[in-house]
Amino acid sequence: MSSAESGSSTGTRTRAGASWLRPVVAVLGLLYLALGIAGFLTPETAAVGHETSRAVWIFSVTPLLNLVHAAVGVLGLLAATRRTGAIIYCWVLFVGFTGMTAYGILATALVNPEDPINLNWADNWLHGLTAVAGLVLGIVAARAVNRAAAQAR
């Protein structure tokens, strides 16, 4: 085998590491974009207290939360175009949604009617599970890329 042939197969193996990540990130991005858009399209309903003034399925919606969900969705779709972007997106999901989960737990426990985000427990679960998914995907993808790079050497 010539050196050019072995170089191309090495490059192919290196690129193959974590090839599953980009579609997974695209699906996460689509889900969050759909949630954000659905929140903007949901008419206001009459609700009392902290339970939320509007809801999409079981999740509370406010303009600020809709904007966050839509931005996370768009960033996910953009990140899915490159493997490195997808890995970075996973880590950003982990850090960002860990913070959102912590804030949501405090906000839900303290029940402040003037809370601009107005999270409920369903939102906390969604954000917590997204943070865990970001962590797991980030670790598994980084290991797959490192394993592929080690095999290429």
In short:
By secondary structure, the chain is mostly helical. Helix content is 73%, strand content 3%.
Task: Report on the biggest sheet.
Answer: 2 strands, antiparallel
Strand content: under 5%
According to DSSP, the number of beta strands is: 2
How would you describe the shape? elongated
Radius of gyration: 20 Å
- Tally of individual domains: 1
Class by alpha and beta content: mainly alpha
| Percentage of residues in helical conformation | over 70%
With helices defined by DSSP (H or I, 4 residues minimum), what is the helix count?
5
Distance between the termini: 16 Å
Order of helices and strands: HHEEHHH
Q: Indicate the mean pLDDT.
A: 84
What topology, given as strand order, has the largest sheet?
1-2
Low-confidence stretches: 1-14, 45-52
